[in-house]
């Protein structure tokens, strides 16, 4: 999705607020009660923030700090990247940690760019599996490394607050390319993200 102009963003925000006011009424609230007067606009703003990844380009973020580095051929790991996303089934939060590793071929990227890519994909309506794959694909296609692996551990509010109501279940997903097809390489990564907890 393309970047929205400031004007379009504000127009959408107004329209969202109108709908949220109706939703509050349908939920049985008095929309004119003092504490709720500004709520539709607050929710509209919050939802635009939580889905702003639709209007951001993760590959461009990686390319903005991409450096040639011919000699380093070991794993680069950024672990424990906190993220918050919304599940596309219930629009309830799921959140946790992402761990990313890649083995450079010719290019490395600025370290902060990896969590930025995670955030851009997380701030959309998601499922955990697709979030995992999109981060992997973006890094593979942009940096063209020898391999990339992404592991995500998350809790889903739709499984905790409602539905099956399991408070302690953690969902783990992973995806990888290239050198990570070797079990030994995956093991090295898994061991490194397990330590120092
Ligand atoms: N695979 C996957 N499933 C998810 C994710 N987030 C939520 N879900 C699941 O999506 C499913 C939707 O199933 P439905 O039966 O259509 O929805 P539901 O009636 O609300 O299901 P319950 O949550 O079991 O009450 C549920 O099993 C959720 O747990 C995710 O990131 N990945
Ligand atoms: Zn859900």
From TrEMBL:
<dbReference type="GO" id="GO:0003934">
    <property type="term" value="F:GTP cyclohydrolase I activity"/>
</dbReference>
<dbReference type="Pfam" id="PF01227">
    <property type="entry name" value="GTP_cyclohydroI"/>
</dbReference>
<protein>
    <recommendedName>
        <fullName>GTP cyclohydrolase 1</fullName>
        <ecNumber>3.5.4.16</ecNumber>
    </recommendedName>
</protein>
<keyword id="KW-0554">One-carbon metabolism</keyword>
<feature type="binding site">
    <location>
        <position position="158"/>
    </location>
    <ligand>
        <name>Zn(2+)</name>
    </ligand>
</feature>
<feature type="binding site">
    <location>
        <position position="87"/>
    </location>
    <ligand>
        <name>Zn(2+)</name>
    </ligand>
</feature>
<keyword id="KW-0342">GTP-binding</keyword>
<feature type="domain" description="GTP cyclohydrolase I">
    <location>
        <begin position="18"/>
        <end position="193"/>
    </location>
</feature>
<keyword id="KW-0862">Zinc</keyword>
<dbReference type="InterPro" id="IPR001474">
    <property type="entry name" value="GTP_CycHdrlase_I"/>
</dbReference>
<dbReference type="InterPro" id="IPR043133">
    <property type="entry name" value="GTP-CH-I_C/QueF"/>
</dbReference>
<keyword id="KW-0547">Nucleotide-binding</keyword>
<keyword id="KW-0378">Hydrolase</keyword>
<comment type="pathway">
    <text>Cofactor biosynthesis; 7,8-dihydroneopterin triphosphate biosynthesis; 7,8-dihydroneopterin triphosphate from GTP: step 1/1.</text>
</comment>
<comment type="subunit">
    <text>Homopolymer.</text>
</comment>
<dbReference type="InterPro" id="IPR020602">
    <property type="entry name" value="GTP_CycHdrlase_I_dom"/>
</dbReference>
<dbReference type="InterPro" id="IPR018234">
    <property type="entry name" value="GTP_CycHdrlase_I_CS"/>
</dbReference>
<keyword id="KW-0479">Metal-binding</keyword>
<comment type="similarity">
    <text>Belongs to the GTP cyclohydrolase I family.</text>
</comment>
<feature type="binding site">
    <location>
        <position position="90"/>
    </location>
    <ligand>
        <name>Zn(2+)</name>
    </ligand>
</feature>
<dbReference type="InterPro" id="IPR043134">
    <property type="entry name" value="GTP-CH-I_N"/>
</dbReference>
């Amino acid at each position: 999705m393309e970047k929205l102009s400031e004007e379009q963003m504000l127009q959408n925000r107004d329209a969202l607020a109108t709908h949220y006011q109706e939703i509050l009424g349908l939920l049985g609230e008095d929309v004119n009660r003092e504490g709720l007067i500004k709520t539709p606009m607050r929710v509209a703003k919050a939802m635009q923030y939580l889905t702003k990844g639709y209007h951001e380009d993760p590959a461009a973020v990686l390319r903005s700090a991409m450096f040639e580095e011919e000699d380093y051929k070991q794993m680069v790991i950024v672990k424990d990247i906190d993220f918050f996303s919304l599940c596309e089934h219930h629009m309830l939060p799921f959140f946790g940690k992402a761990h990313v590793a890649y083995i450079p071929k010719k290019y490395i990227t600025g370290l902060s760019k990896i969590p930025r890519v995670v955030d851009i994909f997380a701030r959309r309506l998601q499922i955990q599996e697709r979030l995992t794959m999109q981060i992997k694909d973006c890094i593979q296609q942009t940096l063209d490394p020898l391999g990339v692996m992404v592991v995500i551990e998350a809790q889903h509010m739709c499984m905790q607050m409602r539905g099956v109501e399991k408070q302690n279940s953690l969902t783990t997903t992973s995806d990888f390319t290239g050198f990570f097809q070797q079990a030994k390489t995956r093991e090295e990564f898994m061991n490194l993200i397990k330590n120092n907890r």
